[in-house]
């Protein structure tokens, strides 16, 4: 069974930074035909430039699109245009996500409606919008084949819960349910759907969370059974695995990636 990604046509959200950026690096380096989306225009430009410069001999291709995943029409236009250009869609990495400025410090009853709606809009509706645009292309490939791999992004907050984290936890639990429901529904059509649930990963969003909660990263590391933060490159490897044919019998799984925090 092949672990290769060369020639695979893949879309990815959240590609301007963190886990999304490193996953884009890895997929491109392995020859994928890739389109990355984010709402940060400057970050996207820098991402594409850095990725191309890092792998001058790659057989991959990369394009980008400024997209707010909350906007269903914008998501559909991006994915439809990319598929029209490349003739098929093999995989999707739905990574875009946000957390509240008050994560880890704000009581449930104090969360403003606009903050709740923002988190749910990106983390839940954004994933739904992406999947609704991706699935039809995996069902009707131009060569008559069917199938594809969708990898969503949950969190350890989506398989457990913590105080003062209600909006983020609820949104990531929703991704788990969405992923499992899709896996059951689309398995007969050869479409796989899995999710990765990262824990403490050294990303800009993770560092902001520590700052908001006034936590010392070195102290927090000691609470992780493996004694360290994960890095985006490690998570990217797992996205690549779930997108390749080597994981062809895996669907409906939630892959906890946390150094042992919730085991």
From TrEMBL:
Keyword Transcription found: no
Entries under InterPro entries matching the protein: NAD(P)-bd_dom_sf, SDR_fam
Molecular function terms from GO: oxidoreductase activity
Pfam families tied to this protein: adh_short_C2 (PF13561)
Family from the record: Belongs to the short-chain dehydrogenases/reductases (SDR) family.
Keyword set, alphabetical order: NADP, Oxidoreductase
Protein name stated in the entry: NAD(P)-binding protein
Gene Ontology BP, a term: abscisic acid biosynthetic process
């Amino acid at each position: 069974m092949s672990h290769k990604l060369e020639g695979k046509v893949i879309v990815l959200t959240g590609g301007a930074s963190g886990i999304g950026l490193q996953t884009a690096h890895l997929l491109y380096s392995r020859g994928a035909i890739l389109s990355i989306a984010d709402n940060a225009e400057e970050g996207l430009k820098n991402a594409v430039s850095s990725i191309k410069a890092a792998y001058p001999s790659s057989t991959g291709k990369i394009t980008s699109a400024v997209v707010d995943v909350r906007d269903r029409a914008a998501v559909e236009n991006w994915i439809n245009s990319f598929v029209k250009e490349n003739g098929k869609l093999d995989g999707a990495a739905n990574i875009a996500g946000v957390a509240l400025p008050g994560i880890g410090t704000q009581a449930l009853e104090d969360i403003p409606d606009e903050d709740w709606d923002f988190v749910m809009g990106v983390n839940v509706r954004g994933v739904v919008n992406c999947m609704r645009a991706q699935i039809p292309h995996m069902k009707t490939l131009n060569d008559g084949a069917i199938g594809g791999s969708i990898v969503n992004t949950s969190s350890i907050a989506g398989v457990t819960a913590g105080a003062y984290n209600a909006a983020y936890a609820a949104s990531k639990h929703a991704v788990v349910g969405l992923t499992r429901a899709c896996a059951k529904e689309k398995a007969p059509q050869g479409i796989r759907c899995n999710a990765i649930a990262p824990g403490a990963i050294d990303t800009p969003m993770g560092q902001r969370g520590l700052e908001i909660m006034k936590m010392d990263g070195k102290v927090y590391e000691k609470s992780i059974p493996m004694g360290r933060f994960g890095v985006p490159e490690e998570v990217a490897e797992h996205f690549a695995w779930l997108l390749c044919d080597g994981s062809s019998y895996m669907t409906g799984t939630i892959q906890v990636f946390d150094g042992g925090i919730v085991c």
